[in-house]
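Query structure, 199 tokens:
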């Protein structure tokens, strides 16, 4: 494994540590409402990522609602409004290179199939189709049990005849609700599910 690959892996893990720490702070402070929109949660978590001492120590900055630009047609007026947006971009400069880590977030509820479908179609599938660079999915579980919610997501994936792409719980020291799914095009996609209990 090249040094840069080792660095990228460590950087991605630091980003996961930062978002999990931000989540733990939000839960401890209880300054959220379960009827919030997805971007409300993301903005609050992003704020706590950047306030965390580890982000300064590691030189990592988090931006929310970041537009993703690949190529620009300078002749096309209004192109910026049509660019895809991803919820979180973490970046760091090392040895004259900028490294970026991406996270897309979706709200979830145990008994809400529409939210589970959006998690697949507007989250996972954007990574799988490579509309988004490889990164990590975040689920904000706002009602019900995390395991039952993920069982529901998996049921929809199986219904789509994509059995090999289901989310599998993986033992992980960073967060107890850590899942991975495997995809032919992109390999492993990480999923971190955050439970937001009613205050």
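Result returned for the query:
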């Amino acid at each position: 494994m090249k040094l840069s690959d080792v660095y990228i892996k460590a950087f991605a893990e630091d980003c996961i540590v930062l978002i999990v720490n931000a989540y733990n702070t939000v839960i401890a402070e209880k300054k959220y409402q379960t009827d919030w929109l997805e971007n409300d949660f993301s903005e609050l978590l992003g704020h706590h990522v950047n306030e965390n001492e580890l982000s300064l120590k590691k030189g990592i900055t988090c931006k929310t609602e970041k537009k993703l630009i690949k190529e620009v047609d300078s002749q096309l007026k209004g192109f910026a409004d049509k660019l895809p947006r991803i919820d979180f971009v973490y970046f760091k400069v090392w040895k004259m290179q900028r490294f970026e880590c991406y996270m897309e977030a979706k709200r979830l509820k145990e008994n809400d199939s529409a939210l589970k479908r959006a998690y697949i179609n507007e989250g996972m599938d954007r990574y799988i189709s490579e509309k988004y660079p490889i990164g990590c999915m975040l689920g904000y579980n706002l009602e019900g049990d995390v395991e039952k919610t993920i069982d529901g997501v998996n049921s929809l994936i199986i219904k789509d005849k994509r059995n090999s792409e289901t989310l599998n719980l993986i033992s992980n020291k960073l967060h107890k609700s850590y899942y991975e799914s495997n995809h032919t095009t992109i390999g492993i996609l990480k999923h971190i599910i955050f439970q937001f209990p009613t205050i």
